[in-house]
Amino acid sequence: MSTSQPTFLIEDLHVSVENNEILKGVDLTVDQGETHALMGPNGSGKSTLANALMGHPKYVVTRGRVLFQGEDILRLTPDQRAKMGLFLAFQYPVAIPGISLGNFMRAATRAVNGTGVTAGEFRKQLTERMKLLKMDSSFAARYVNDGLSGGEKKRAEVLQMALLKPKIAVMDETDSGLDIDALRTVAEGVNAIQTPEMGVLIITHYQRLLNYIRPQFVHVLVAGRIVKSGGQELVEQLEAEGYDPIIREVEAAA
Amino acid sequence: MAVKAQDLRGPTDYKYGFHDVEDYKYKSGRGLTAQQVEEISRMKGEPDWMRQFRLRAHQIFMRKPMPTWGADLSGIDFDNIHYYVKPSEKTEKSWDDVPPYIKDTFDKLGIPEAERKFLAGVSAQYESEVVYHNLREDLEKQGVIFRDMDSGLREYPDIVKEYFGTIIPPGDNKFAALNSAVWSGGSFIYVPPGVHVEIPLQAYFRINTENMGQFERTLIIADEGSSVHYIEGCTAPVYSSDSLHSAVVELVAKRGAHLRYTTIQNWSNNVYNLVTKRAVAYENAVVEWIDGNLGSKVTMKYPGIYLMGEGAKGEVISVAFASAGQHQDAGAKIIHVAPNTTSTITSKSISKGGGRTSYRGLLKVYKGAENVKSFVRCDALMLDEISRSDTYPSIEIDEDQVSIEHEASVSKISDEQLFYLQSRGLNEAEAKTMIVNGFFEAFTKELPMEYAVELNRLLQLQMEGAIG
Q: What confidence score (pLDDT) does residue B127 get?
């Protein structure tokens, strides 16, 4: 984008869950076309960031702001954020029994992208994207996340991302619970749908997803703060040494 | 076998017998008199057996106390009910009398003009004569009888006499007795052996008859190896100025027959809807009740299936939606009399705004009914803190060789579900509607498309709080 302001700007974000402060001042910018990875040990606040950005009512922002194309989105409801082009791929997608994935996606794409797409065009898009993600066409008739395997749920999340075409996609531990084949399929799917218009923030504990989706920017979240940022070499460092040296560094500095 | 169809018959040699006119004089002024019952039968020109049937039923009705085990019926005033209105005396009601919320809902559902008047009780008919005529010719070629109950009695007295009141005798309950005494209208269907009726038969195809009468009486007989699907009611609200509606529906599925009965009722919220529905399924027959209860002040309705013959199958799928001031007391009764019979009950209820839903079910397996399989699932969804849902399952098993499963759940719309749907661009009302539609899906998927679409639209209006 030619504008000077980044698409997505997180500034000094503090978030509490049930009066416990989890995020203690997070700063991060993601632009369209960029791929960022946010890595961190368990309990560092990765999922809290994902949920707070999308507007889960349980995650209370106590300080800071989140600008999406210049607008502070923290006062907006999750659906308003979605309509602006923000997307969250859930770590644990919840089941909606009785609603087929196809009907759900039709309703969601109409809500987010408007009513311009005809039913026929939608079907075509749905079929194409499912093929891309190696999903059987019968999948569209399955209930949303109901009785699906872990891998199927994650593929369904990426399918939704592909259809909603967000400007900023946050992927919360999309790699968790996937075997190596499912991981590759999901990663290839993400690579295939990413466009210069889409910025991606991949949240993960492990480096393995990042072997397939190569981020330009890597950040390490420890105890509610981003303590280190860098490039791909940071992934390799974490892979070799684990999080302990960084955690010790942070503790020593505190 | 422990129970035979004959045992289900009413007390034909009823011990109080038939009293002559003087005997009920003392009862006059208590709402419904024997003279009034006689008069109904006389005006309809019925055979003597039906007159006697009505009078016996009247006595039972007068004798039986009000049931107190279920919903609160204390608001019913038997003195204030018109039990029968001669067609000639029927005054055309005015569109202006129809409550605004009903009109508003018609608008929002996009109900066609002609249909609105029919649903509001302002006009008695709306389906075109031509459609009905063609349908009737096709059916008659196959030997299928489809009449209103009064015409059925006139034209096919022998068939009616053989079955009428045998599945639900007047003594079954106070409201079955009342219906038996004063019934008028309803459907009579007979499907000959081996005949498959391809399109669903719908009550409103019948012209110039009372489709939505107060005391409807329906009798459907599917003879051996035949199949038929009957649909009554509609999703749109039906305005009735009568506060008590008490129908009786009797189904007979002979050996190898397949009989499905779909109802959607959405009475205006002044109505007590107290319905007795029961089916008998013989060897390898299949009976399905698909039953939706959306309106009324109080509904008490427990469609029953007696599985009398080996290999018979019964299924009840019901939904209930209760808003403020409504109590939906609904459920199912399945009686396994024969071995190798199977049954499924699926009950879904939603309560909102202080509304109340109850699931009341009976599952009975008689001794000797070996290898019975039954699965009962009842789920309640409460949309707020002030609504209420209860479950009263009753299971009586007198046989060891059975497989019975019962699952029940009470849930609320979870924050996680709402958040998930909202994160995909649906606003809160849209998200809740989607969850509710999904909750009712087990029912909706059984409906013909136009009913399903209208039901989902109606739920959407309910969820938006757009209608009362």
A: 40
